[in-house]
Amino acid sequence: xxxxxxxxCNELRKTDAGKTVKISGWIHSVRDHGGVIFIDLRDHxxxxxxxxNPQSKCYQELDRWRPETVACFIGKVVERIxxxxxxxxxxxxxxxxxxxxxILGDADVLPFQVAKxxxxxxxxxxxxxxxxxxxxxxxxxxxxxSQVISEIRRLLxxxxxxxxxxxxxxxxxPEGARDYLVPSRVHPGKFYALPQAPQQFKQLLMVAGFDKxxxxxxxxxxxxxxxxxxxxxxxxLDMEMSFVTQDDIFAVLEELLPAIFNKFSTKKVDTAPFVRxxxxxxxxxxxxxxxDLRNPLFMQDVSEVFANSGFNAFAAAVKNGGIxxxxxxPGIAGQPRKFYDDMIAFAQSAGxxxxxxxxxxxxxxxxxxVKFMSRAELDKLKELGNIQDGDVMFFLADKEKLxxxxxxxxxxxxxxxxxxxDKNVFRFCWIVDFPMFETDEESGQIIFSHNPFxxxxxxxxxxxxKNPLDILAYQYDIVCNGVELSxxxxxxxxxxxxxxxxxxxxxxxATVDERFGGMIRAFKLGAPPHGGIAPGVDRMVMxxxxxxxxxxxxxxxxxxxxxDLMMNAPAEVEMKQLRELRIIPLPHPLKFEKxxxxxxxxxxxxxxxx
RNA sequence: GGGGGCGUAGCUCAAUUGGUCAGAGUGCCACCCUGUCACGGUGGAUGUUGCGGGUUCGAGCCCCGUCGCUCCCGCCA
Length: 610
Description:
Helices cover 30% and strands 23% of the residues. Among the domains are: 14-105, CATH 2.40.50.140; 295-420, GAD-like domain (Gyrase A, domain 2), CATH 3.30.1360.30; 575-609, no CATH class. The mean pLDDT is 90. By secondary structure, it is an alpha+beta fold. The chain starts with 19 loop residues before the first strand and ends with a helix.
């Protein structure tokens, strides 16, 4: 007989009755009747009821076990009588009558219960993550994550992709997020950076002729957390392909994503091709570059109606270069007054000065603003909004950017409050035609709006002839239910176009050579046209597991302050290590550049004296 | 860096307007119980109400500060 087990805890059935078996696992729950004792023994696979009768020789050994003790039982499989069958357990037709037991791992009193899916403080859950991971829901999520990744590998390999590894210790990239830095011992004062994404490496693999690349790539960014953004590190399904257009990349994702989502969820999944929405349209209609298409509401421009109306607040907004936008909500005229007040308060908390509304009910308009408007204006609104009796329109007026931003939030709030969002579907869309450049709000300069490696639409000619702000890029996002899964782009693989693009953004060729020397050198020695995309693995699994928080699909996540409460990271290190790295930690509030320089000078003197 | 929410027993939470409010469930400990499956029953122990200060005759409750967690803004090419 095996040292620990002949069967797993989900295996035994009626047909096994009479066999002597050995099973091991955690004591999930104990029901002690004074005479007979029942134990649910749990392992990764399931649960089995163990019965200990008073005449069993292990009955006396039951001193000090607690829930979550790891134990091994030898006993005979017994078919349960019909009255005692437990239909909730896979193994509920049988039980194991224990003859011998062995404690394999003691358990102290638990900081929280494993057998109950009871909420407990996240800090505690993170500190005792190994316990939390035993709980059913989290355990299932992590297994799903494993299976999703395994399926991605299977599908992509089948589509001719090869999986690669790229360096974890690399150099700091001048663009993008804050880097995590790793000091070099061999080169004191110099630093490696952890990759924010293997962006340049995957492009170089294309230049190297590998044609189709993918990697379940760890990415490191020193930025603050959100519910859907784990600080520190996360995983991307990083992909890159040569000799492709934007449509080719879309086709791969439109095959891959429905396959994955259909396999791991029972929700209805959009079929290919996914809707494509130009960036500007997304901002204008949904007030977001990651619209949740489950929400049927959208904004429309009604500035023309109010431009000359008697409603001065709106007319003035239009005269001052702003716009008025409307969100039509069908059939909610019966909502109480409080609903409108709450929505207005919400809009104000989102940054609006106010929000107006008109209710079409029983053939007439009801609203505080109606008295300022002409019949013709009201009729025009009705026509623009294709209004039926019972419909309501909400209005926001201000500068376009603000109206879009607030309107987007109002749209989401209305969708949530009114239950307009179908929880049983996955709605995908591509956001395309991102602008190549934008104006920096502080300096007024032209800057890259996404990443400098994207190919401008129209190529060199567009860069030479068009207003930079009108140039679009072959840059796209894929969005699912309002969650941005991924950004991608057809890359700029031509050095001449690259230099020109940087010139538009105010950088000379020397800067390009200095910052992206490796890439430019590669592009000068025969680079294929290429492009790619990198869907977030954590976010995909989060959607599939129907979890509102990304930490629920990561085995060992950081908390929001980028700490690992279980491993106690980050932590101070030995003085010896710091000395080797030539690093002196400074006290936390370091307010002045001068303080820093003084300390640097002192450190220099000290090291000379040594 | 900024804003919101939360912080009462190991855990989940309650405590009316500032006045017998230091409480329940669960867990823990002890005992009882031979068919439960979240077993049941009896009894018991457990609190710096996150921390510090203030207002008050009196603070879990109000005020100020601080710490922790979380959500959001900034940030995330």
